[in-house]
Specification:
The chain is built from 5 helices and no strands. It has 125 residues and is mainly alpha-helical. It has one domain (31-124): Recoverin, domain 1 (Orthogonal Bundle). The termini are far apart. The structure holds calcium ion (CA). Calcium ion binds at residues 53, 55, 57, 59-61, 64, 107.
């Protein structure tokens, strides 16, 4: 009887230990995936910046993102990055204060991208 309860207790502690281990592993994996995902978007945004900024004013605005999304030259993978930029456009554009005299403050600048992704990496660090 005593042995049985000891085994049960041991099983219980083992399974909760394993669960804790699995959860830690999963959350570590998903954090790594998130970091990786953000790094991919960041890399894409930096590399494609000049291409996305059609009027070359230093800002990627919503129309320019939508044009890229519509373009047959844009791959599905790139489209998923553009969708991210579109849905977070406001937060990204606000990440860096360009100053009031700057045109197109709603567009995304290189400074915005840098500030935004720095903030993200600090948050999930
Ligand atoms: Ca532009």
């Amino acid at each position: 009887m005593l042995a049985l309860s000891m085994i049960k207790r041991w099983e219980k502690s083992m399974s909760s230990h394993e669960k804790g281990f699995e959860n830690a592993w999963f959350s570590r994996q998903s954090n790594l995936n998130i970091v990786e995902h953000f790094n991919e978007i960041k890399t894409y945004a930096y590399l494609a910046f000049d291409q996305l900024d059609e009027d070359k004013n230093g800002y990627i605005d919503q129309n320019e993102l939508l044009n890229a999304l519509d373009s047959p030259r844009t791959s599905e993978r790139e489209k998923s990055f553009i969708l991210f930029l579109l849905s977070n456009q406001e937060a990204i554009a606000e990440a860096f204060n360009e100053g009031d005299d700057q045109p197109d403050p709603e567009g995304i600048s290189r400074n915005d991208l840098e500030a935004y992704f720095k903030l993200i990496s600090e948050l999930i660090g």
